[in-house]
Specification:
Blueprint lengths: L2 H5 L9 H4 L13 H12 L10 E6 L2 H8 L4 H7 L4 E8 L1 E2 L2 E2 L3 H18 L3 E5 L4 H7 L6 E10 L9 H4 L25
Antiparallel strand pairs: 1-2, 2-6, 3-4, 5-6
């Protein structure tokens, strides 16, 4: 029985990839081959979006120089664990189009992230999204136009041993549980439980 099966049991039948995906912090210093790395973005490419606008974009850092540039805006806590990650992807989403405001930009970018993370799991990779970054500095360092929202930063790579993490993070290096499915659903109106 794997690590995820110990703490993650579905209430209803689903594909195991949903249970296997979690967000470890221990990365191996091992480069991800380009065809495997780009397959994650291929999966993200097929995410649904309103009017098929596909407002998401990814700024990739996989060279030493680019990863160091990203480190300038990653928060101190996240730097303690993500330094070994061989790749980062900053998810940004376009705020407007010729149709006007893209009200679903973050929702659509979230769908793309979800597809990317599941494909990473299928490929034997781990991903860890984070918002513990300096958004203004990221915008400045990466020359991101004001017409794009910065949504999150993802560390991508192969999973390392939890013992490689600082002691205070080792105990957290386990898949998390989730609340029961019916606690996330209201029926008919806010606060109304399923009937």
């Amino acid at each position: 029985m794997g690590k995820t099966e110990v703490v993650r049991q579905p209430e209803y039948e689903i594909d195991s990839v949903f249970l296997e995906r979690w967000s470890p912090r221990s990365f191996l210093e091992k480069e991800v081959p380009e065809d495997i790395l780009l397959s994650l973005f291929e999966a993200a490419r097929w995410a649904p979006s309103a009017f098929n606008l596909q407002p998401w974009r990814f700024i990739l850092a996989r060279t030493k120089e680019d990863r160091e540039k990203f480190m300038t805006f990653i928060g101190e806590f996240n730097q303690t664990w993500c330094k070994k990650a061989p790749a980062f992807a900053l998810i940004i989403s376009q705020l407007t189009s010729e149709r006007g405001n893209i009200g679903s930009h973050a929702f659509d970018a979230g769908a793309a992230w979800g597809y990317l993370s599941l494909e990473a799991t299928r490929k034997g990779l781990i991903t860890h999204p984070m918002t513990g970054i300096d958004f203004d500095k990221a915008r400045e360092v990466l020359n991101i136009p004001e017409d794009y929202a910065i949504d999150a930063l993802i560390a991508i790579g192969y999973q390392g041993e939890k013992e490689a993490l600082p002691p205070h993070l080792q105990e957290r290096e386990v898949p998390s549980t989730r609340r029961p499915v019916k606690e996330s659903i209201f029926e008919g109106s806010f606060g109304e439980p399923l009937k």
